[in-house]
Task: inverse folding
Protein backbone atom coordinates (compact mmCIF):
# COMPACT_ATOMS: atom_id res chain seq x y z
CA UNK A 1 0.00 0.00 0.00
CA UNK A 2 1.23 3.49 -0.86
CA UNK A 3 1.53 6.33 1.64
CA UNK A 4 2.84 9.88 1.42
CA UNK A 5 5.68 10.61 3.79
CA UNK A 6 6.98 13.99 4.88
CA UNK A 7 10.66 13.87 3.94
CA UNK A 8 11.59 17.43 4.81
CA UNK A 9 10.17 20.71 6.09
CA UNK A 10 11.22 24.34 5.71
CA UNK A 11 9.97 27.82 6.50
CA UNK A 12 10.66 31.49 5.97
CA UNK A 13 9.79 34.49 8.12
CA UNK A 14 10.09 38.09 6.89
CA UNK A 15 12.98 40.15 8.23
CA UNK A 16 10.84 42.70 10.03
CA UNK A 17 9.13 41.84 13.32
CA UNK A 18 6.46 44.14 14.77
CA UNK A 19 5.57 43.77 18.45
CA UNK A 20 2.20 44.62 19.98
CA UNK A 21 3.81 47.59 21.71
CA UNK A 22 5.06 48.92 18.38
CA UNK A 23 1.61 48.44 16.84
CA UNK A 24 -0.03 50.29 19.72
CA UNK A 25 1.88 53.43 18.68
CA UNK A 26 -0.07 53.62 15.41
CA UNK A 27 -3.44 52.07 16.29
CA UNK A 28 -5.65 52.33 19.39
CA UNK A 29 -4.77 49.04 21.10
CA UNK A 30 -2.53 47.61 23.81
CA UNK A 31 -0.24 44.64 24.24
CA UNK A 32 -2.45 43.54 27.13
CA UNK A 33 -5.67 43.57 25.02
CA UNK A 34 -4.10 41.66 22.13
CA UNK A 35 -2.26 39.11 24.29
CA UNK A 36 -5.29 38.39 26.50
CA UNK A 37 -7.73 37.95 23.61
CA UNK A 38 -5.45 36.14 21.15
CA UNK A 39 -2.13 35.10 22.71
CA UNK A 40 -0.34 37.17 20.04
CA UNK A 41 2.70 39.23 21.10
CA UNK A 42 4.34 39.89 17.72
CA UNK A 43 4.08 39.25 14.00
CA UNK A 44 6.41 39.44 10.97
CA UNK A 45 5.60 41.87 8.19
CA UNK A 46 7.04 41.35 4.71
CA UNK A 47 8.71 44.04 2.64
CA UNK A 48 8.15 44.64 -1.10
CA UNK A 49 10.68 41.95 -2.04
CA UNK A 50 9.17 39.34 0.32
CA UNK A 51 6.28 38.26 -1.88
CA UNK A 52 4.58 34.87 -1.68
CA UNK A 53 6.84 33.39 -4.37
CA UNK A 54 9.96 34.83 -2.69
CA UNK A 55 9.08 33.52 0.77
CA UNK A 56 7.85 30.24 -0.72
CA UNK A 57 11.16 29.87 -2.56
CA UNK A 58 13.25 30.19 0.60
CA UNK A 59 10.98 27.85 2.57
CA UNK A 60 11.12 25.35 -0.30
CA UNK A 61 14.92 25.35 -0.51
CA UNK A 62 15.07 24.55 3.21
CA UNK A 63 12.50 21.77 2.86
CA UNK A 64 14.30 20.22 -0.12
CA UNK A 65 17.61 20.34 1.74
CA UNK A 66 16.04 18.79 4.85
CA UNK A 67 14.61 16.04 2.63
CA UNK A 68 18.11 15.24 1.40
CA UNK A 69 16.98 15.81 -2.18
CA UNK A 70 17.73 18.28 -4.95
CA UNK A 71 15.12 20.54 -6.56
CA UNK A 72 15.41 18.33 -9.66
CA UNK A 73 13.78 15.49 -7.70
CA UNK A 74 10.50 17.42 -7.37
CA UNK A 75 7.76 16.19 -9.72
CA UNK A 76 4.99 18.68 -8.87
CA UNK A 77 4.52 21.96 -7.00
CA UNK A 78 1.32 22.90 -5.16
CA UNK A 79 1.14 26.32 -3.53
CA UNK A 80 -1.64 27.23 -1.11
CA UNK A 81 -2.09 30.98 -0.97
CA UNK A 82 -4.76 33.66 -0.84
CA UNK A 83 -2.22 36.37 -1.59
CA UNK A 84 -0.55 35.49 -4.90
CA UNK A 85 2.21 37.76 -6.27
CA UNK A 86 0.12 38.43 -9.39
CA UNK A 87 -3.28 37.73 -10.90
CA UNK A 88 -1.43 35.70 -13.50
CA UNK A 89 0.69 33.62 -13.56
CA UNK A 90 -0.01 31.62 -10.44
CA UNK A 91 2.48 31.72 -7.57
CA UNK A 92 3.43 28.07 -8.14
CA UNK A 93 4.74 28.98 -11.63
CA UNK A 94 6.71 31.89 -10.20
CA UNK A 95 8.12 29.55 -7.56
CA UNK A 96 8.86 26.89 -10.17
CA UNK A 97 10.82 29.45 -12.19
CA UNK A 98 12.75 30.60 -9.10
CA UNK A 99 13.62 26.98 -8.31
CA UNK A 100 14.70 26.37 -11.91
CA UNK A 101 12.55 23.27 -12.43
CA UNK A 102 10.57 24.49 -15.40
CA UNK A 103 9.41 21.08 -16.63
CA UNK A 104 6.95 20.05 -13.88
CA UNK A 105 3.29 20.87 -13.20
CA UNK A 106 2.75 23.77 -10.79
CA UNK A 107 -0.55 25.13 -9.52
CA UNK A 108 -2.10 27.18 -6.72
CA UNK A 109 -5.06 26.36 -4.59
CA UNK A 110 -7.02 28.94 -2.60
CA UNK A 111 -8.52 27.81 0.67
CA UNK A 112 -7.55 30.65 2.99
CA UNK A 113 -6.04 29.50 6.29
CA UNK A 114 -6.96 25.88 5.50
CA UNK A 115 -5.04 26.05 2.21
CA UNK A 116 -2.11 23.95 3.39
CA UNK A 117 -4.44 21.16 4.55
CA UNK A 118 -6.23 21.24 1.19
CA UNK A 119 -2.92 21.19 -0.72
CA UNK A 120 -1.58 18.38 1.46
CA UNK A 121 -4.70 16.34 0.77
CA UNK A 122 -4.41 16.84 -3.00
CA UNK A 123 -0.73 15.87 -2.92
CA UNK A 124 -1.57 12.79 -0.85
CA UNK A 125 -4.02 11.57 -3.50
CA UNK A 126 -1.39 11.85 -6.27
CA UNK A 127 1.22 10.06 -4.19
CA UNK A 128 -1.04 7.29 -2.91
CA UNK A 129 -2.27 6.74 -6.44
CA UNK A 130 1.32 6.12 -7.48
CA UNK A 131 1.00 8.77 -10.20
CA UNK A 132 3.81 10.96 -8.93
CA UNK A 133 6.80 10.26 -6.68
CA UNK A 134 7.75 13.58 -5.04
CA UNK A 135 5.66 16.71 -4.41
CA UNK A 136 6.56 20.08 -2.95
CA UNK A 137 3.66 21.60 -0.99
CA UNK A 138 3.94 25.22 0.10
CA UNK A 139 1.66 27.28 2.34
CA UNK A 140 2.39 30.99 2.05
CA UNK A 141 0.56 34.24 2.66
CA UNK A 142 1.19 37.96 2.87
CA UNK A 143 -1.99 38.85 4.73
CA UNK A 144 -0.48 42.11 5.95
CA UNK A 145 -0.81 43.34 2.35
CA UNK A 146 -4.60 43.01 2.60
CA UNK A 147 -4.84 44.32 6.16
CA UNK A 148 -6.35 47.68 6.99
CA UNK A 149 -3.76 49.04 9.41
CA UNK A 150 -6.32 51.47 10.81
CA UNK A 151 -8.78 48.71 11.77
CA UNK A 152 -7.70 47.55 15.23
CA UNK A 153 -10.14 44.64 15.21
CA UNK A 154 -8.20 42.91 12.38
CA UNK A 155 -4.74 44.44 12.01
CA UNK A 156 -3.47 43.01 15.29
CA UNK A 157 -4.24 39.45 14.20
CA UNK A 158 -2.22 38.76 11.07
CA UNK A 159 1.37 38.23 9.99
CA UNK A 160 3.32 36.91 6.99
CA UNK A 161 5.41 33.82 6.30
CA UNK A 162 5.90 30.62 4.33
CA UNK A 163 6.12 26.94 5.17
CA UNK A 164 6.96 24.04 2.88
CA UNK A 165 7.05 20.26 2.96
CA UNK A 166 8.52 17.72 0.56
CA UNK A 167 6.37 14.60 0.34
CA UNK A 168 7.38 11.32 -1.23
CA UNK A 169 5.55 8.08 -1.90
CA UNK A 170 6.54 5.21 0.41
CA UNK A 171 5.19 1.83 1.52
CA UNK A 172 5.46 2.71 5.24
CA UNK A 173 2.68 4.65 7.00
CA UNK A 174 2.96 8.41 6.54
CA UNK A 175 -0.16 10.51 5.99
CA UNK A 176 -2.89 8.23 7.38
CA UNK A 177 -5.85 10.33 6.27
CA UNK A 178 -6.94 13.86 5.41
CA UNK A 179 -10.40 15.32 6.02
CA UNK A 180 -11.68 18.42 4.24
CA UNK A 181 -14.86 20.46 4.70
CA UNK A 182 -16.40 23.70 3.46
CA UNK A 183 -19.54 25.71 4.21
CA UNK A 184 -20.17 28.59 1.82
CA UNK A 185 -23.11 29.81 3.90
CA UNK A 186 -20.52 31.40 6.19
CA UNK A 187 -19.09 33.45 3.31
CA UNK A 188 -19.53 36.82 5.02
CA UNK A 189 -17.93 35.98 8.38
CA UNK A 190 -14.37 36.30 7.14
CA UNK A 191 -13.84 37.90 3.76
CA UNK A 192 -11.83 40.13 1.48
CA UNK A 193 -14.94 41.56 -0.20
CA UNK A 194 -13.35 42.98 -3.34
CA UNK A 195 -10.33 41.70 -5.16
CA UNK A 196 -10.07 42.54 -8.85
CA UNK A 197 -9.56 46.29 -9.33
CA UNK A 198 -12.51 46.46 -11.75
CA UNK A 199 -14.85 45.16 -9.04
CA UNK A 200 -14.00 47.90 -6.57
CA UNK A 201 -16.29 50.82 -5.95
CA UNK A 202 -14.39 54.14 -5.86
CA UNK A 203 -11.13 52.23 -5.64
CA UNK A 204 -12.13 50.74 -2.28
CA UNK A 205 -9.07 48.80 -1.12
CA UNK A 206 -9.24 45.03 -0.79
CA UNK A 207 -9.04 44.53 2.97
CA UNK A 208 -9.91 41.68 5.31
CA UNK A 209 -13.26 42.01 7.09
CA UNK A 210 -14.13 39.70 9.94
CA UNK A 211 -16.91 38.98 12.38
CA UNK A 212 -14.50 37.86 15.08
CA UNK A 213 -17.07 36.32 17.42
CA UNK A 214 -18.77 34.35 14.63
CA UNK A 215 -15.39 33.04 13.43
CA UNK A 216 -14.41 32.10 16.97
CA UNK A 217 -17.62 30.16 17.63
CA UNK A 218 -17.57 28.35 14.29
CA UNK A 219 -13.86 27.52 14.53
CA UNK A 220 -14.09 25.86 17.94
CA UNK A 221 -17.05 23.70 16.86
CA UNK A 222 -15.81 22.79 13.36
CA UNK A 223 -12.26 21.98 14.46
CA UNK A 224 -13.55 19.87 17.34
CA UNK A 225 -15.64 17.85 14.90
CA UNK A 226 -12.97 17.39 12.25
CA UNK A 227 -10.31 16.15 14.68
CA UNK A 228 -12.82 13.62 16.04
CA UNK A 229 -13.57 12.56 12.47
CA UNK A 230 -9.84 12.05 11.76
CA UNK A 231 -9.34 9.95 14.90
CA UNK A 232 -12.46 7.87 14.26
CA UNK A 233 -11.46 7.22 10.63
CA UNK A 234 -8.22 5.68 11.89
CA UNK A 235 -9.77 3.98 14.91
CA UNK A 236 -7.29 5.90 17.02
CA UNK A 237 -7.78 7.14 20.60
CA UNK A 238 -6.96 10.75 21.54
CA UNK A 239 -4.11 9.41 23.67
CA UNK A 240 -2.30 8.24 20.50
CA UNK A 241 -1.56 11.81 19.43
CA UNK A 242 2.01 12.87 20.13
CA UNK A 243 1.68 16.39 18.73
CA UNK A 244 -1.18 18.66 17.80
CA UNK A 245 -0.10 21.16 15.14
CA UNK A 246 -3.03 23.56 14.95
CA UNK A 247 -3.74 26.55 12.78
CA UNK A 248 -2.27 29.51 14.64
CA UNK A 249 -5.09 32.08 14.75
CA UNK A 250 -5.88 32.46 18.41
CA UNK A 251 -4.44 30.80 21.52
CA UNK A 252 -7.93 30.54 23.02
CA UNK A 253 -9.13 28.46 20.05
CA UNK A 254 -6.00 26.30 20.28
CA UNK A 255 -6.46 25.80 24.02
CA UNK A 256 -10.14 24.88 23.63
CA UNK A 257 -9.19 22.19 21.12
CA UNK A 258 -6.35 20.86 23.26
CA UNK A 259 -8.76 20.57 26.19
CA UNK A 260 -11.25 18.70 24.03
CA UNK A 261 -8.49 16.28 23.02
CA UNK A 262 -7.29 16.07 26.66
CA UNK A 263 -3.84 17.07 25.42
CA UNK A 264 -1.58 19.14 27.71
CA UNK A 265 -0.37 22.34 26.05
CA UNK A 266 3.19 21.01 25.99
CA UNK A 267 1.98 18.52 23.35
CA UNK A 268 0.72 21.37 21.19
CA UNK A 269 3.00 23.32 18.85
CA UNK A 270 2.28 27.02 19.43
CA UNK A 271 3.76 29.81 17.32
CA UNK A 272 0.85 32.26 17.35
CA UNK A 273 2.54 34.28 20.11
CA UNK A 274 5.43 35.17 17.78
CA UNK A 275 3.97 34.72 14.28
CA UNK A 276 0.29 35.77 14.71
CA UNK A 277 -2.03 34.32 12.05
CA UNK A 278 -0.05 33.61 8.88
CA UNK A 279 -2.98 31.93 7.10
CA UNK A 280 -1.86 29.09 4.78
CA UNK A 281 1.67 29.27 6.21
CA UNK A 282 0.75 28.78 9.84
CA UNK A 283 0.57 24.97 10.04
CA UNK A 284 3.69 24.17 7.92
CA UNK A 285 5.69 26.86 9.75
CA UNK A 286 4.71 25.41 13.13
CA UNK A 287 5.52 21.91 11.87
CA UNK A 288 8.93 23.03 10.65
CA UNK A 289 9.75 24.77 13.92
CA UNK A 290 8.96 21.68 15.99
CA UNK A 291 10.81 19.36 13.62
CA UNK A 292 13.92 21.53 13.61
CA UNK A 293 14.05 22.05 17.38
CA UNK A 294 13.75 18.29 17.89
CA UNK A 295 10.34 18.14 19.55
CA UNK A 296 8.83 16.13 16.70
CA UNK A 297 10.57 12.80 16.16
CA UNK A 298 10.28 10.20 13.40
CA UNK A 299 7.51 7.68 14.06
CA UNK A 300 5.40 10.06 16.14
CA UNK A 301 1.72 10.68 15.43
CA UNK A 302 0.81 14.22 14.38
CA UNK A 303 -2.63 15.78 14.16
CA UNK A 304 -2.81 18.85 11.92
CA UNK A 305 -5.88 21.09 11.62
CA UNK A 306 -6.85 24.47 10.17
CA UNK A 307 -9.86 26.62 9.36
CA UNK A 308 -10.23 29.71 7.21
CA UNK A 309 -12.61 32.05 5.45
CA UNK A 310 -15.25 30.24 3.43
CA UNK A 311 -15.52 28.60 5.80
CA UNK A 312 -13.07 25.91 4.77
CA UNK A 313 -11.48 23.55 7.27
CA UNK A 314 -9.67 20.27 7.54
CA UNK A 315 -7.45 17.90 9.48
CA UNK A 316 -4.74 15.36 8.76
CA UNK A 317 -3.42 12.46 10.84
CA UNK A 318 0.19 11.71 10.05
CA UNK A 319 2.91 9.33 11.15
CA UNK A 320 5.96 11.55 10.85
N1 LIG B 1 -7.51 46.67 20.84
C1 LIG B 1 -8.36 47.15 21.78
N2 LIG B 1 -9.68 46.99 21.72
C2 LIG B 1 -10.18 46.30 20.66
C3 LIG B 1 -9.35 45.79 19.65
C4 LIG B 1 -7.98 45.99 19.77
N3 LIG B 1 -7.09 45.52 18.88
N4 LIG B 1 -10.13 45.17 18.75
C5 LIG B 1 -11.40 45.28 19.16
N5 LIG B 1 -11.44 45.99 20.32
C6 LIG B 1 -12.58 46.34 21.13
C7 LIG B 1 -13.85 46.35 20.33
O1 LIG B 1 -14.02 47.62 19.72
C8 LIG B 1 -14.88 46.10 21.40
O2 LIG B 1 -15.13 47.31 22.05
P1 LIG B 1 -16.62 47.70 22.53
O3 LIG B 1 -17.04 46.63 23.48
O4 LIG B 1 -16.42 49.02 23.17
O5 LIG B 1 -17.42 47.74 21.28
C9 LIG B 1 -14.17 45.20 22.40
O6 LIG B 1 -12.77 45.34 22.12
C10 LIG B 1 -14.58 43.75 22.34
O7 LIG B 1 -14.49 43.32 21.02
P2 LIG B 1 -14.89 41.84 20.63
O8 LIG B 1 -14.84 41.70 19.16
O9 LIG B 1 -16.16 41.50 21.28
O10 LIG B 1 -13.70 41.02 21.35
P3 LIG B 1 -13.54 39.46 21.44
O11 LIG B 1 -13.32 39.08 22.84
O12 LIG B 1 -14.55 38.71 20.66
O13 LIG B 1 -12.13 39.25 20.69
C11 LIG B 1 -11.17 38.61 18.59
C12 LIG B 1 -11.98 39.64 19.36
C13 LIG B 1 -11.04 39.05 17.15
C14 LIG B 1 -9.78 38.51 19.21
C15 LIG B 1 -11.88 37.25 18.70
O14 LIG B 1 -13.23 37.38 18.36
C16 LIG B 1 -11.24 36.22 17.83
O15 LIG B 1 -10.11 35.85 18.00
N6 LIG B 1 -11.98 35.67 16.85
C17 LIG B 1 -11.46 34.70 15.94
C18 LIG B 1 -10.56 35.36 14.95
C19 LIG B 1 -9.84 34.38 14.09
O16 LIG B 1 -9.41 33.38 14.55
N7 LIG B 1 -9.72 34.69 12.81
C20 LIG B 1 -9.01 33.95 11.84
C21 LIG B 1 -9.62 32.63 11.59
S1 LIG B 1 -8.77 31.86 10.30
Result:
Amino acid sequence: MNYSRILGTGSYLPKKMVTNDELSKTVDTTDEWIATRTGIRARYVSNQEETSSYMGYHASLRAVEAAGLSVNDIDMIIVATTTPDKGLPNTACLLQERLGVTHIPAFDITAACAGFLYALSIADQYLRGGIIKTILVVGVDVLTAVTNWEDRSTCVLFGDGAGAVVLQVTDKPGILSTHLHADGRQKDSLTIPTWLPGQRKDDEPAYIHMDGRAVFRFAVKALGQVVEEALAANNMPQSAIDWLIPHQANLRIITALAEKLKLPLDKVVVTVDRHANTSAASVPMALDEAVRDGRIQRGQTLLLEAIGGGFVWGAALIIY
Notes: The chain has a mean pLDDT of 96. The chain has two domains: 3-171, 176-319.
